[in-house]
């Protein structure tokens, strides 16, 4: 079973499962996990090949099954790679996913040759990680333009260094974006309420989120834009992230798209 921590003492009917992104661990949710746990049962999971789940070397489909085994019936919040895992779970076992929050996630690469090119690029990244070691790899990874607005103090370097070279290399090869099936055509199958969270400055994933919301079954998905943030919007502006997510978790999941104001009210973990 994947490793996980449980925070809060609420009943399982208010369970929320947190699934981190690539190179992170269950500890990377920080203040967000603490904030949600005030009146919920929060299950923070180490995704396959990460943290204390490093020995699990699986693809997205099997990773989603393992995630559902830990989380059971719950609301799921997944960031980037964690969002891909949660999306796969929602499609494979929708009865487990009461609500879904995806942060900077995608339904996949639609064009076959572009997907193959991404797989090849992830293989090269894995080779470089094995050659140069974890510290050098993390420095290069966080230098990605996606993280240009992520302050160093919010990046959670210590948590990322809890991972192993072998685990992260396996994750790139088995759960990278290039390995994800093209799920765009299956989005209409999903009928659970969904909140697709993106940072204002993450133009690529903002466009993706709006497309996903439009394709979602029953019109039950909406987009929340976190102002003043980039790809890792939940790390850059955790208070604003909670302001968007908590009402969604507490409500019926309906409503129009949401844009968070007050970009200066930041409290980085």
Indicate the mean pLDDT. 94
What is Rg? 17 Å
* Proportion in helices: 25-40%
Alpha plus pi helix count: 10
**How does the overall form come out from the CA principal axes?**
globular
Low-confidence stretches: 261-269
Biggest sheet strand order reads 1-3-2-4-5-6-7-8
**How far apart lie the N and C ends?**
28 Å
Series of H and E elements: EEHEHEHEHHHHEHEHHE
Structure summary, number of beta strands: 8
Strand content: 15-25%
Largest sheet: 8 strands, mixed
Computed structural class: alpha/beta
Describe this structure in words.
It is built from ten helices and eight strands. The chain has 269 residues and is α/β, with parallel strands linked by helices. Strands 1-3-2-4-5-6-7-8 form an eight-stranded mixed sheet, sandwiched between helices. Helix 3 links the parallel strand 4 and strand 5.
Give a quick summary of the entry.
An 8-stranded mixed sheet has the order 1-3-2-4-5-6-7-8, sandwiched between helices. It has helices at residues 30-36, 60-71, 81-92, 112-132, 134-142, 157-160, 165-175, 203-215, 233-236, 238-250; strands at 4-7, 15-19, 41-45, 74-79, 97-103, 194-199, 221-226, 258-260.
């Amino acid at each position: 079973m994947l490793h996980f921590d449980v925070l809060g003492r609420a009943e399982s009917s208010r369970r929320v499962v947190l699934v981190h992104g690539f190179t992170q661990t269950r500890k990377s949710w920080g203040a967000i996990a603490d904030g949600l746990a005030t009146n919920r049962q929060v299950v923070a999971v180490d995704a396959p090949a990460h943290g204390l789940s490093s020995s699990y070397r699986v693809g997205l489909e099997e990773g989603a099954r393992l995630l559902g085994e830990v989380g059971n019936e719950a609301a799921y919040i997944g960031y980037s790679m964690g969002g891909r895992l949660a999306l796969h779970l929602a499609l494979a076992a929708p009865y487990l996913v009461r609500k879904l929050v995806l942060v900077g996630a995608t339904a996949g690469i639609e064009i076959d040759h572009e997907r193959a090119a991404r797989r090849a690029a992830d293989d090269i990244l894995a080779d470089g990680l094995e050659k140069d070691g974890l510290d050098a790899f993390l420095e290069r990874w966080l230098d990605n333009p996606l993280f240009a607005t992520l302050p160093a103090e919010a990046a959670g370097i210590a948590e990322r260094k809890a991972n192993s070279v072998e685990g992260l290399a396996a994750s790139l090869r088995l759960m990278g974006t290039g390995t994800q099936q093209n799920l765009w055509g299956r989005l209409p199958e999903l009928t659970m309420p969904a909140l697709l969270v993106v940072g204002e400055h993450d133009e690529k994933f903002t466009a993706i989120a709006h497309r996903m919301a439009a394709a979602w079954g029953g019109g039950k998905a909406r987009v929340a834009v976190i102002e003043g943030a980039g790809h890792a919007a939940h790390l850059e502006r955790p208070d604003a992230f909670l302001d968007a997510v908590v009402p969604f978790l507490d409500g019926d999941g309906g409503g129009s798209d949401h844009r968070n104001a007050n970009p200066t009210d930041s409290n980085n973990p």
